[in-house]
Write a structure and sequence with these properties.
Length: 896
């Protein structure tokens, strides 16, 4: 197949769009990856014809016409799942193809497609005017071996079991309107024919789109003369074919079974049933088109006017004006300024240009972008039912681009993206804004006007049906873990739904995974205590260093979309009668469902698996057999937790043989993060101490698959010979200690604990006759490996507890306290009191300090709460030492 672009499907080897590095992506095609089986095949575009198809086309059209029609129509993108559906429908009944606006070019395309696929040719057509039909009769008929279709007699063709085509409306061009006169409705006759037939008449809505440009509400002279883009006349269709045939594509909706409709409506006459069928077809075609083009494109001024007329916003502005003692007009001007700062200026032409530049960037730095096609199909299905909010993981700046790139590459309108105001730097801010980004201040607490404007703008986007994208984690994860959710954007969406803007909203969690992250060095520095740097033009100047590197493959996977209406019904939430507490509970439940979805959709990458195995031990290095054994065990444990590999390992996981682990070693070895020593006939793999925190990032990408079992393993190993109740209590305490680190399974903890104990049975954990939980001799190393995955977190929290001693002398500025705490941690590591260099992490300390606040151990004081102080009951060295000892009790002993 000949394809365009840089994204690739993981649904079948060689399917999807062309990989960025043909050899690398082909050799590592994830045949066993999630979504590989059962997902929809990738779309057909320009597939080379086989001998049989060529013979059919030659018989129908002759050599010259076959070549001409092939040149015109073979590049048009038709979904392969649509081909399978058409074959099944033709076997089941009589197919009537239904398109929106009459166009001879559209008819020629579908007739060519049917002949090419060996499906029944279209034998009657309704909706094409006689003056348009006659000049093309010979071309439509093909040679004598293909019967010429009859115009308007679709019911007659259907009665004899032959396929037909119906156009729902005439074109918008002046010439076509004059040529048409009246337009006969064929559906009553089709209903009447169905009543006499045994086979069902299957109405298949299909739309041929020449481009993905949104409908423009402005009408010009060209639209009057040659038809609108949604209903083009003959000449506009022909020009579109010549200009856009390589960008054109077909979207197919769900078929309408006329027999089922007749049986389900016994009291209705033919005309009434025809109206029902026609309405469903219109709805299907409109949905399919809107998924691609999005809502109608309005001028920025009109969007601003409609946003500023929002009733909730108007009420806030009036109230603020009264409180400030100012005229309403001055507050309205402030709101207009805020909206200009926030709002996107979506421009399809800029999106197209930006996409072309990204093609080159992605081809240069990545070996392939593998897309979960089955998951993407679920997103598209959800988008037909309700406005969607894409909620991907956030690990890199690339996240900001990849989802839009994916949508545009697949011929869909890109989402409006909620971005931090720091991303609005010149000149990229202008490009981002015109590509659909809208910018939000990092903090606007207390600014009621700004908050109300932002809510009104989000409500406007939801009302108009624009897809949106935002990161529920708030900012990028510097650690590689999915961060705990922030509720702001989700709350605005829920507010819009509660206000009745839309009957339902769909939230689509997605995981974007990197085999190597661009920002690895920056993240390591920030976790060591350096301040985050503001993005500006210097980010662009550093691009050459990035473009000169390779970062492996990038993976995009989608979880099952979440229906807000369904979640509300599950929780018994009533939109008409609810409390603010109930609404906050709904937002919180939605947020954690989204994060859980991101984690569930994650895959185990080669770099993640390798890094996890290399970091979870106290030795200087691992011999190849030990490394393979660890990776095999970890991959099996991840599989039990739902984590599937993003790669195939048909030849095993041996790092000495070509395969994904060797490629991962190459990626991580280029910057010295992993070293390989060949001595004494052995291969030894080691991580230099200064690079451990970099590899910890990749370990954290997959850590959530192991955490539930690691918690139980830690509780077992740190309470030897203890009874089941004691181990369960310790495991529960450890889970609570790490509540800011991981998203744990909801439900009664006793049930969760029992499931994990049972699952660890195959790892050698058993309940003895005395009621204690202990591993057997073979299982002890396996449980230790799991427990070692949490050592850096236990050490980090213990060191953070010890840093509470810095507050014994009195309150300290929060930043100063963090700086001093990290210095103490580095000293402890250098003195050997901490085993893991990655234990001294700003992110771990921040989460630990937040836990101390949540538990009332630390309180905020001073102006704007910038200082931290100990609560009275903890202002003694004994109390601080006791806290640290409690945490250290979860630390498994060093090996050996």
């Amino acid at each position: 197949m000949r394809h365009r672009g840089g994204l690739r499907s993981d649904s079948a080897p060689g399917s999807g769009l062309a990989p960025m590095n043909e050899v690398a992506a082909r050799d590592c095609e994830p045949k066993g990856a999630p979504g590989a089986a059962g997902g929809p095949p990738a779309p057909v575009r320009g597939a080379p014809l086989g001998d049989e198809a060529n013979a059919r086309l030659s018989r129908a059209y002759g050599w010259l016409l076959r070549r001409l029609l092939g040149w015109a129509f073979l590049p048009v993108w038709y979904p392969e799942e649509g081909v399978a559906q058409l074959r099944a429908l033709h076997e089941r009944g009589v197919v009537v193809h239904v398109a929106r606006s009459a166009a001879i070019v559209t008819f020629l395309y579908f007739q060519h497609l049917m002949v090419r696929l060996g499906l029944p040719a279209i034998q009657a057509v309704a909706g094409l005017a006689a003056r348009i039909w006659r000049p093309w009769g010979a071309l439509v008929a093909g040679r004598r071996r293909v019967r010429a279709p009859r115009r308007d007699d679709v019911a007659g063709a259907v009665k004899t079991g032959r396929s037909a085509m119906v156009f729902l409306r005439r074109t918008g061009s002046l010439g076509s309107m004059l040529a048409f006169g009246g337009l006969r409705d064929p559906f009553p006759a089709l209903v009447a024919a169905q009543r006499t037939m045994e086979k069902p008449v299957l109405l298949v809505p299909q739309i041929l789109l020449w481009n993905r440009a949104p409908l423009n509400l402005r009408r010009g002279l060209l639209d009057l003369l040659f038809g609108e883009p949604e209903a083009p006349g003959f000449w506009r269709s022909l020009v579109s074919l010549l200009r856009n045939r390589r960008r054109a594509f077909v979207k197919a909706g769900d078929p309408v079974d006329l027999k089922e409709l007749v049986l389900a409506s016994p009291g209705l006459d033919d005309a009434a049933i025809a109206r029902l069928a026609r309405g469903r077809l219109h709805q299907q075609l409109t949905r399919e088109a809107r998924v691609v083009t999005g809502p109608a494109l309005k001028p920025a001024r009109r969007i601003a006017m409609e946003t500023l007329r929002d009733r909730s916003l108007r009420a806030v502005l009036v109230e603020v004006a009264r409180e400030r003692g100012r005229a309403d007009g001055s507050v309205e001007r402030e709101a207009a300024r805020d909206l200009r700062e926030i709002a996107a200026r979506f421009t399809p032409a800029v999106v197209a240009l930006f996409k072309r530049s990204l093609d080159g960037v992605f081809h240069r730095i990545y070996d392939g972008v593998l897309v979960d096609e089955a998951g993407f199909a679920r997103v598209l299905k959800a988008a037909k039912q309700a406005p969607v909010a894409l909620c991907p993981s956030h690990k890199s700046y690339i996240d900001f681009l990849i989802m839009s790139y994916l949508f545009v590459e697949r011929g869909l309108v890109p989402p409006h993206i909620a971005a931090g105001i720091n991303m609005s730097f010149w000149p990229m801010g202008v490009i981002f804004r015109r590509s659909g980004a809208f910018f939000i201040r990092r903090s606007f607490k207390g600014d009621r006007v700004y908050s109300a404007v932002l809510k009104a703008y989000v409500r406007k986007l939801v009302k108009d049906g624009f897809p949106m994208e935002y990161f529920v984690e708030g900012g990028r994860s510097r650690t590689g873990k999915v961060l705990l959710p922030r509720f702001g954007m989700l709350a605005m969406h829920v507010d819009a739904w509660v206000d009745g803007v839309r009957p339902d909203l769909a939230f689509c969690p997605a995981w974007i995974g990197y085999e190597k992250i661009i920002e690895a060095k920056t993240y390591a520095s920030e976790l060591g205590g350096e301040e985050k740097k503001q993005e500006d033009i210097r980010s662009l100047l550093r691009a050459p260093a990035v473009l000169a590197s390779r970062f492996g493959r990038l993976h995009v996977k989608f979880a099952e979309p979440l229906s807000l209406a369904a979640l509300a019904a599950e929780r018994g939430f009533d939109r008409a009668r609810h409390t603010e507490e109930e609404k906050r509970g709904l937002v919180r439940a939605l947020a954690f469902r989204v994060v859980e979805g991101i984690n569930r959709s994650a895959a185990v990458t080669p770099t993640g698996l390798l890094s996890t195995a290399l970091l979870a031990h106290d030795r200087r290095g691992l011999a190849a057999p030990d490394l393979v054994e660890r990776m095999e065990f970890l991959l099996a444990r991840a599989g039990l937790a739902g984590g599937q590999p993003s790669f195939t390992a048909d030849g095993g996981l041996d790092p000495r043989r070509p395969g994904p682990i060797v490629e991962a070693l190459g990626l991580l070895g280029r910057d010295g993060s992993v070293t390989v020593h060949e001595t004494g006939g052995e291969h030894i793999y080691a991580v230099p101490e200064e690079h451990r925190i970099r590899l910890d990032y990749y370990k954290n990408n997959v850590l959530h698959f192991f955490v539930p079992e690691a918690v139980v393993a830690t509780a077992v190993l740190t309470s030897p010979s203890a009874g089941r109740d004691v181990v369960e209590a310790r495991a529960k305490d450890l889970s609570r200690l790490f509540k800011n680190e991981f998203v744990f399974e909801a439900g009664k903890y006793g049930d969760v604990f029992a499931r994990n104990v049972a699952r660890l049975g195959d790892a050698g954990l058993h309940e003895n006759s005395d009621g204690s939980l202990r591993p057997d001799d073979a299982g002890a190393p396996k449980l230790r490996l799991l427990a070692e995955l949490l050592v850096n977190f236990v050490e980090g929290y213990a060191a953070a507890s010890e840093a509470l001693a810095l507050l014994l002398e009195g309150p300290r500025d929060a930043r100063e306290w963090m700086k001093l705490a990290l210095e103490r941690g580095r000293a402890s590591y250098l003195a050997g009191r901490l085993r893991r260099r990655e234990s001294v992490s700003k992110a771990i300390y921040e989460n630990a300090f937040q836990l101390f606040e949540d538990r009332g151990i630390v309180v905020r004081e001073g102006e704007k709460g910038r200082q931290r102080a100990l609560s009275p009951q903890y202002r003694t060295k004994q109390a601080v030492d006791a806290l640290a000892a409690d945490v250290r009790s979860f630390l498994v002993r060093a090996e050996g």
